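Both lines are given unchanged directly below:

***
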Amino acid sequence: MEELPDLGGQGAFGAPESTDPFTPRSRHLVVVSGGLGDPSSSRQLADRLAAAASDR
């Protein structure tokens, strides 16, 4: 079997490997614990998640 070249911290096709520390399970826990029962809390959570995603 042919050995793959070292891409220097990059994934397949030269794409950077994911540095996202959250698994889908931990994201679910954050959303559920964020207080989805209260509409104002839901809006705050949505705003914070959007802000965090745009900071990457």
